[in-house]
Amino acid sequence: MSDTPAPAAITMDAIVALAKRRGFIFQSSEIYGGFNGFFDYGPLGAELKKNIRDCWWDDMVRRRDDVVGLESSIIMHPKVWEASGHVAGFTDPLVDCKVSKQRYRADQLFFAAVVVDGKTAGYVSALESEKTAAELQAAAELFKRKKALQGTLSPIVAKDMTEAQPDEIALIPSPATGEPGSLTPPRSFNMMFQTNVGAMTDASAVAYLRPETAQGMFVDFKNVVDTGRVKLPFGIAQIGKSFRNEITPRNFIFRSREFEQMEMEYFIHEDADWAKCHEEWIAWCEAWLKSIGLPASHLSRYTHPKEKLAFYSRGTVDIMFSYPFGVQELWGIAARGNYDLTQHATASGKPQEIFDEATKKKFVPHVIEPAVGVDRILLAVLCAGYAEEEVKDEKGAVEKRTVLRFSPRIAPVKVAILPLLKNKPELVAIAQKLHAKLKRKYAVFYDEAGAIGRRYRRQDEIGTPWCVTIDFDTIEKPGETFTLRERDSMSQRRITEAELFALLEEHVY
Ligand code: ATP
Q: What are the φ and ψ backbone dihedral angles of 43, each rounded to 5 degrees?
């Protein structure tokens, strides 16, 4: 991927279709009709996801001297989630439609009063999208026409259901039925999945699937400090599955019920300049996203307003990505003070302090937390990398090519090895030898079936940065060279085996 923006008109339909067609992402349990909010990663998707995880782990943990890794259990003591505040407060506001049985997140269900000549004549509603305001305006105009109301319609003022007054709720139409009267007032819905541990099924056996990986780092903080020879400032990082019973999973893998997070808790001295450290981590995250090929043009920042922050939070900045369905949160970087460690110290009765040699005092470290979803990154690289182009084939005829411009760092296949003809044993033997050598270190693909142009297109569509063709020049000319064909420029040049390894060494790290 280069720094140039992807063509504007990429649709989610095209991304979802390619993801299915080429084995990146499938619906979970598809043969049983799918399971809303759950997805499977096929052969190429699993490789792509692993590469994203590996790049993050290498850059975040192995290549830094101040961050160590952790793998904590998914099901933890239920008291963890009481202390962290998740049992009481990890909720989304839920609105039910009593007629259709549909459920909506109240902050994603919008409504507006239809005001004619200064008087409210009724209400319209629409679900959150890039077009919510336009849809509400159109609905208000239709309402006025249908009711044959005379007078001037005021421009609509969109609000979400968390802002609805009690007397308005009965008048707001359900998006499912179009009729008012069936929506309930918003109520809190806890998003943690519950399970029972052990043979009992009573309240004492209730446990939760973790809704974030972060608590593992807090609960094991003392273990890492006591065993890891770490010194402030330092971080603990973890990659793993998280589970949230999202009311409205949507936008493909953007918001699902089972997803994977890469989180890091960076512990700092209580007197450290947290704002500087926060900014450094935001910049690190942005640079990392660019290093795996996301174009700067698709990235932006959103600073959470002070009045919307949790009481303990000092500041949160989200790195946003321009998805086809709008600009949305990709990576949240939060300055959380010492809230989490203090909560666990109080709840467990085990101090979570560090001794300061300089002042001879104990204190609870503060923390900066960059938290990102692997699936959201994967969707971002699919969307930013996807392009449909018109190109000329070998005979000069114009044809369409679909290409995924993945960075070589994360591309599921780094190189395709293609003998020009499969019935020429000399070509095939060299190709197979090269394939065997390369695959010890890199994900490579061997393909001898079909016209060479078609084989190039197949690789373009799965984002393979380079194809290597073993052709007659390889055997006839001295120096054993191959044709190297580049995905993005489609240019071709000759390359030796040593040069090919050097190229991979430079770009795949
Ligand atoms: P959102 O506001 O989109 O629900 P959040 O602010 O609740 O996200 P965090 O709790 O900060 O998210 O989680 C950290 C990261 O985990 C998010 O930035 C996102 O990349 C990822 N994430 C959170 N919820 C989901 C989900 N349901 N599906 C996929 N990824 C998710």
A: -55, -45
List CB contacts of 461: < 8 A, sequence separation 6 or more: 18, 22, 401, 402, 403, 404
Q: Alpha-carbon distance 345 to 364, whole Å? A: 9
Handedness of CA 219, 224, 225, 227 (dihedral sign): positive
From 261, 317, 319, 379, the mutation candidate for ligand 1 (largest count of ligand atoms within 8 A of CB) is 261
Q: How far is the CA of 216 from the centre of ligand 1 (A)?
A: 17
Residue 266 pairs in a beta bridge with 235, 368
Taking a C-beta distance cutoff of 8 angstroms, is the pair 464, 487 a contact?
A: yes
Which amino acid residue places its CA nearest to atom 28 of ligand 1?
255
Q: CA-to-CA distance for 269 and 272, rounded, in angstroms?
A: 5
Per-residue pLDDT of the chain (509 residues), as tens digits, is 434 444 457 899 999 999 999 999 999 999 999 999 999 999 999 999 999 999 999 999 999 999 999 999 999 999 999 999 999 999 999 999 999 999 999 999 999 999 999 999 999 999 998 889 999 999 999 999 999 999 999 999 999 999 999 999 999 999 999 999 999 999 999 999 999 999 888 888 999 999 999 999 999 999 999 997 899 999 999 999 999 999 999 899 999 999 999 999 999 999 999 999 999 999 999 999 999 999 999 999 999 999 999 889 999 999 999 999 999 999 999 999 999 999 999 999 999 999 988 899 999 999 999 999 999 999 999 999 999 999 887 788 898 999 999 999 999 999 999 999 999 999 999 999 999 999 999 999 999 999 999 999 999 999 999 999 999 999 998 899 999 999 999 999 999 999 999 999 999 99
Ligand 1 atom closest to residue 328's alpha carbon, by position in its atom list:
3
Q: In this structure, which residue's CA is closest to atom 20 in ligand 1?
A: 373
- Assign 131 to helix, strand or coil: coil
Residue 249 CA, closest ligand 1 atom number:
27
Residue 19: name the closest of 320, 463, 330 by CA. Answer: 463
pTM: 0.92
The beta strands (E) that lie in 336-406 are given as 354-356, 361-363, 366-373, 386-392, 398-404
How many CB atoms within 10 Å of residue 84?
A: 24
List phi, psi (to 5°) of 235.
Answer: -125, 155
Return the amino acid letter for 243: F
- Which atom of ligand 1 lies nearest, measured to the CA of 334? 11
